[in-house]
Amino acid sequence: MSRYDAIVIGAGAGGGIVAYTLAEAGARVLLLERGRHQNFETTGRDHLRNHRLAQYGHNTGPDLVGNPRVFVGLDGIPEIVPPHHHAYSNNAMVEGGGTLVYGGQAWRFPPRDFKMASTYGVPEGSSLADWPISYEDLEPFYEWAEHAIGVSGSDPAPEMPDRSAYPMPALPQTPKGQILEEAAKRLGWGTQRVPLLINSVPRDDRAGCIHCQHCVGFACPVDAKNGTQNTVIPKAVATGRCEVTTEAMVLRVEHFRHRATGVVYSHGDEVHVADADKVYVCGGAVETARLLLNSGIGNGQVGRNLQAHYYSSTMAIMPEPVWNGVGPGASIATLKFTHGNEGLVGGGMLADDFIVLPIVFAKWHRPPDVPTWGIEHKNWMRYAYPRFVSVMGPIQDIPNAEARVTVDPYVKDHLGVPVARLSGTTHPETVRVTDFMNQKGREWLEAAGAERIWNSAPSLRLSSGQHQAGTCRMGDDPESSVVDATGKVHGFENIYVGDASVHVTNGCLNPVLTVMATARRMALLSLT
To answer: pLDDT, tens digit, for every residue of 482-503?
Structure first.
């Protein structure tokens, strides 16, 4: 048995920052990560086995065998699904979590994202609520994350508050981005460059972006993509006070009365016990809820309000080629419709996409009248792929308390631990807003001169994918939340949650920078 000042469970966007913050302050920290330590060589570039397209598997954890989840569809029938199945809603389980393989869009949530219920009211059947903290509370932690992890970008859109400059200039504009920027000007829409957690210039002894075509779903070949695995976690280890153990599955958090005493975890073929003064759970919205439920920690709100992001996505073919093969690809965005859309609750962002792999284009972005194989399909690919432009972006999901994570009463993983069971749907307002944003995407592409435009209609479903959040929401009232405004679990003196589980709403933009900011804030407050 070992004893630490703090045990941090999960080495992703939140957990890596929590571990660094505590170690930097002098605490002796054990950072436990279920996945492996990986890099570019070990994740590879298999176009059919990655975290963008997991056709036959993925390139990080968990292992495909022995780690199921249960998904309950709209028909109420439970299905056991493996990690690469779309219904599994898998976050990358690896040191660094999703930050190893993400595209790295580094947005701050707009101020109104924190006050959705006050701004719009609460739609019937929803669990929409305000955060107990504001944009102003997080602003200094946003700025810290932008500099500590590393963001490249330019001036903010007119819809965002003024701010200090990013530490690195924006990555180069793309031909499709230039076309979209000019079209937005004709429409009178404000735009900004997409901020990215990618080195646009060499920084911290790591290279600048080499503009390859494999950002989303893959590790960076020159380590220019900034995640916790190559920034704060090495710095935490360098203090001499942070011990990182990978391939360590926490089975339960031990507690007595109102205090955690430590954790029980499996590593190799052995089960270990580690004691700690404080425990920080940072496993992602699904696995954090699962661990708390299996440990008997928290109230009846644990696992509720599961949300992620619906995406608006509108595709188009331009009259002339716009593809130049220069990555990462995402370069221009409009925030005009994030809020203030008449008759709607919230809104979303629209941006051009990262470079789309040819197989992803063929599978996900092909119009319904184009065959999936044969000479007509090949001709379409040859013509359309170089001319392809899409505008897409996350929608402000409206939460539903019945969209949730529970633990399955029958199915267990290879270690004998009850697995996560996902059920429910988002709120219908999310579907309405997605449809509205699809129309705005069409309007933008029409102004850009596209010769053909298409998208698909959204439908009601569970929203629980790569931006999963909400299952341990933050709030002042234990009747409607799991943690307080500092991230401490209601009813417990020394258990904290440091990932997107605490998000009351998940914003109208990519949430990783908010995960990092809230993790930094929570860790510092836990030291006082």
So the answer is: 999 999 999 999 999 999 999 9
**Distance of alpha carbon 442 from alpha carbon 448, whole angstroms:** 10
Cross-strand partners of 391: 314, 352
What is the average per-residue pLDDT within 280-299?
98
Phi/psi for 383 (5° steps) reads -80, -45
| Helix 175-187 vs helix 428-447: crossing angle, to nearest 10 | 100
Contact present, 388 and 452 (Cβ < 8 Å): no
pLDDT given at position 112? 98
- Asked if residues 16 and 27 have their Cβ atoms less than 8 Å apart, the reply is no
Distance CA 524, CA 26 (A): 12
Q: How much of the chain exceeds pLDDT 90, in percent? A: 99
**DSSP label at 148?**
I
Distance CA 185, CA 526 (A): 46
Q: Which two structure tokens, joined as six digits, stand for 310? A: 């619906």
Rg for the chain (alpha carbons), in Å? 22
- Specify whether the CB–CB gap between 403 and 283 falls below 8 A: no
Asked if omega into 328 is within 30° of 0 (cis), the reply is yes
Angle formed by the axes of helices 512-526 and 13-24, to 10°? 30
- CB burial of 132-169 (b: ≥16 within 10 Å; e: otherwise) equals bbebeebeebbbbbbebbbbbbeebbebbeeeeebbbe
Is it true that the peptide bond before 62 is cis, omega within 30 degrees of 0? yes
Query: Averaged over 14-31, what is the pLDDT?
Result: 98
Instruction: Sheet containing 332-334: give its strands across.
Output: 192-193, 332-334, 350-352, 388-394, 311-317, 452-454
Q: Is the whole-model pTM more than 0.90? A: yes
For 303: left if phi > 0, alpha if psi spans -120 to 50, otherwise beta; the answer is left
* Sequence-ordered alpha helix ranges (H) in 26-112: 40-43
Extract the tokens encoding 412. 């267990």
Q: What is the mean pLDDT of the chain?
A: 97
Virtual CA dihedral for 38, 39, 40, 41, nearest 10 degrees? Answer: -70
Query: Pick from 240, 291, 292, 249: which is nearest to 269 by CA?
Result: 249
How large is the average pLDDT for residues 339-346?
98
Residue 466 pLDDT grade (very low, low, confident, very high; cuts 50, 70, 90): confident
Tell me: the pLDDT tens digits for 196-251? 999 999 999 999 999 999 999 999 999 999 999 999 999 999 999 999 999 999 99
| 332-334 vs 242-245, strand pairing mode | unpaired
Q: Rounded to an integer, what distance in angstroms lies between the CA atom of residue 110 and that of residue 310? A: 18
Tokens for 527?
């030291």
**Residue (of 414, 416, 400) closest to 294 by Cα position:** 416
